[in-house]
Amino acid sequence: MSGADIREFSRPMTGPALVPLIDAIEAGEKPVVAAIEGMALGGGLELALGCHYRIAHSKAQLGLPEVTLGLIPAAGGTQRLPRLIGFPAALDMIITGRRVSAGDALKLGIVDQVTERNAGEVAVAFARSVVDCPLVSRRLSTWPPLCPADLDNILQMALARAWQRGRGALAPVACVQAVQAARLPYSQGMQQEQKLMSMLFASPQARALQYCFFSQRAVGKWSMPNGACWDNSTARPIRKAAVIGLGTMGRGIAVCLVLAGIPVIAMETDEKQLEAARRVVMALLEKEVQKLAVGLHLGLIHFTLEQRYLREVDLVIEAVFEDLALKKQLFAELSSVCHPDTLLCTNTSQLDVDQLATATSRPDLVVGMHFFAPANKIKLLEVVFTSRSSPEAVATAMQLGKWLGKVSVAVANCPGFVGNRMLRPYVEQAGFLLEEGATPEQVDSALEHFGLAMGVFRMSDLSGLDVGWRVRKAAGLTGPGVPQGQLLQTQQGYRYSPLADLICQKGRLGQKTGCGWYLYEGPGGHMARPDPWVHAFLEEYRRVHGLQPRSIGQQEVLERCLFALINEGFRVLEDRIVMDPVALDVIYVLGYGWPAHTGGPMYYAGEVGLPRVLGRLEYYQRVHPDIPHLRPSALLRQLVAKGSPPIHKWMWHIEEGSSRL
Ligand SMILES: CCCCCCCCCCCCC[C@H](O)CC(=O)SCCNC(=O)CCNC(=O)[C@H](O)C(C)(C)COP(=O)(O)OP(=O)(O)OC[C@H]1O[C@@H](n2cnc3c(N)ncnc32)[C@H](O)[C@@H]1OP(=O)(O)O
To answer: Is Transmembrane a UniProt keyword of this protein (predicted)?
Structure first.
């Protein structure tokens, strides 16, 4: 039971109400034993908590994930669970929405028995054995709350955690408030649970989170402009894979594959690098084995310097240095080394996948598999198809992503694909805001207050400032021989801020060098502190360029950065890089820390109102005519002209033939 039917939340509910049903089961005189196989989630677990006993199959999973939908468990879950397992454990499960295994549920006291056999049969036998036992002590709602002496403190800490984790989300806080009410007699606690649920149920945040739930499933139903889609394309089995290049990304990808039970050839060209990678990968895997308490076959991974092992793999993921010539050479070599049917995938984050495909003997079997760092943690995978990728290759990469526990989004090849393409105007605006008078911490604080996991400058410091520097050099925007502009810098006819290049030239590459836009404890440090050097540097820069600093409010930071990103999202749609705006929202929520309770950038634009987004972009474009990314996209204009239709109708308004594919 995966709980209430989420689709029913946006239409009139039918059938018996769950709360009286569960109360009636619990109050009954006949013992009721819940047999749990597969999932008992949300209302499913709440129903089980209303039963007198619970037997779970060893592979079952239990949880109250309502918080991820912007809700609280509202069929007694917030009242029965703390009575059963105590406040701290119940708070943890309800605020995080995490699932627990049957084994952990037994340890926590949620279930009475775990079985390897058919849970239904075991439950029937169990019911027979308890048929004469009194039920009075089995009704959780009648149990007095297990209030430890330091309960106030526990609740306060949970509230603080809910605020911090939620980044503006209401549901985690409401979860704590509902659990807090379990101190009261059951009927009063239930009143509080219902009150909080009613408040959340109709909230925009719950709607946005439920949109995210369905979007993350909808992107699995991918399609390509040539008509190939999830429904008519068959994925190949991947019996063995190879990862080439064991830097940070390659190591993370290798860990993902092993955790999914896929044998891996992990290849490097340098002995020292290979040994360093072996140490890190094995340590990561051993940590996972301990955490998951599962038997993982660590022999699934074979580290090597020799290409001959690549003959036996079904798929290669290349994760070498971001250099087009190097990657092309590698792809040409792979064509002759690997079996002719082997899929060749690249983890490039911005190089042209079509160009890589032409370097091989099998362009139809080349796709991008763009993982996000840390690859073993971030749930997003961009699967990049070229004009020549076969449906089978796309289906295989999409299926592999799912097998690795990722949400895979199929996107067409274009510079930066989707995520990094939309990021560029966002980062660019942040740089202009510094020129105009803001500090990195002012910009970041506005963005983090909005709910982003990390502001733009903290994020850049984490990724390494040299990454973007290399891209800008390759694009001819900076570097030796590129003419420097005057006053405000201009490159290729448009406004260009060289601030990030200047910072890099000083050797400030972010966390890894101990300083970037912020100052850290030392190289590799994580604690960002505002840096007086950066402030002085910005002041001097403005002075030299004759820029009068002005005070920049939170609203301007958000509108300039977020609306520029959204505007590029509309251009991505116009170019039909993806089939649907939900793909952009999934990419941003899962890959870039965009707050899920706003639905994602495109959904958020709809909530703010497309006329407002358009109006503000027009305003900023008038003020900054030299910034093309502030020029509203044709699609945005068209949608507003058509009366701002809902997001699922946006694609209807794209003119045929606008695709660049
Ligand atoms: C103003 C008036 C106020 C009135 C107040 C109203 C009070 C109402 C009282 C209600 C009582 C509350 C009851 C309870 O507390 C609330 C809930 O239970 S909320 C639901 C909680 N459950 C979940 O969040 C589970 C969600 N599902 C999952 O996590 C996963 O789907 C899964 C179950 C782990 C399975 O995962 P997979 O095997 O990977 O499969 P998919 O995820 O791809 O799913 C397959 C398919 O099923 C659809 N689906 C799954 N769960 C639900 C669901 N709960 N409701 C609807 N649909 C569901 C999913 O979308 C997929 O569909 P497809 O994409 O294939 O069409």
So the answer is: no
What region, left, alpha or beta, does residue 101 occupy, with left being phi > 0 and alpha being psi -120 to 50 degrees? Answer: beta
The single residue listed with the structure tokens 């580290």 is 303
pLDDT tens per residue, range 385-442: 999 999 999 999 999 999 999 999 999 999 999 999 999 999 999 999 999 999 999 9
CB 1 less than 6 A from any atom of ligand 1: no
| Contact 4 CB / ligand 1 (< 6 Å) | yes
Atom of ligand 1 minimally distant from the CA of 214: 60
Residue 615 has pLDDT above 60, yes or no: yes
Nearest CA to ligand 1 atom 8: 74
pLDDT tens per residue across span 509-560: 999 999 999 999 999 999 999 999 999 999 999 999 899 999 999 999 999 9
Q: Which of helix, strand or coil describes residue 290?
A: helix
H/E segment holding residue 205: helix 204-218
Q: What distances in angstroms separate CA 347 from CA 366, 382, 584, 614, one per listed residue?
A: 11, 9, 19, 35
Q: 568-573 — which CB contacts under 8 Å span 24+ positions?
A: 568/421, 568/422, 568/424, 568/425, 568/629, 568/633, 569/422, 569/601, 569/602, 569/605, 570/633, 570/635, 570/636, 571/633, 571/635, 572/414, 572/418, 572/421, 572/422, 573/635, 573/650, 573/651, 573/654
State residue 298's pLDDT score: 76
Whether the predicted pLDDT of 485 surpasses 60: no
**Residue predicted with more confidence, 384 or 293:** 384
HSE (side-chain half, CA atoms, 13 Å) at 307: 12
Protein residue closest via CA to atom 41 of ligand 1: 217
Q: Of these residues, 8, 26, 29, 46, which one is catalytic? A: 46
Where exactly are the structural domains of the chain?
A: 6-202, 241-413, 438-544
Any atom of ligand 1 within 6 Å of the Cβ of 314: no
Summarised one tens digit per residue, pLDDT across range 147-189 is 999 999 999 999 999 998 899 999 999 999 999 999 999 999 9
Q: Is 37 a catalytic residue?
A: no
Give the residue-averaged pLDDT of 630-639. 97
Structural tokens at position 160:
């603080």
CATH 3.40.50.2020 fits 6-202, yes or no: no
Q: Find all residues with CB under 8 Å of 14, minimum gap 6, and list them.
A: 8
Q: How many A from CA of 39 to the centre of ligand 1?
A: 11
CA-CA distance, 241 to 306, in Å (whole number)?
15
pLDDT of residue 474: 82
pLDDT tens per residue, range 210-243 = 999 999 999 999 999 889 999 999 999 999 999 9
Q: Is omega for the bond preceding 480 within 30 degrees of 0, making it cis? A: no
pLDDT for the residue numbered 297: 75
By CB atoms closer than 10 A (0-12, 13-18, 19+), residue 382 is buried
380 bridge partner residues:
407
The three-point CA angle 516-520-524 to 5° equals 90
CA distance 302 to 266: 6
CB 330 within 8 A of CB 316: no
Q: Judge whether 46 counts as a catalytic residue.
A: yes
Q: Would you give the DSSP letter of residue 519?
A: B
CATH code, residues 241-413 = 3.40.50.720
Helix or strand (DSSP H, E) at 577: none
**Average pLDDT in the chain:** 94
Sign of the CA dihedral with 125 first, then 129, 132, and 136 last? negative
CATH number of the structural domain 438-544: 1.10.1040.10
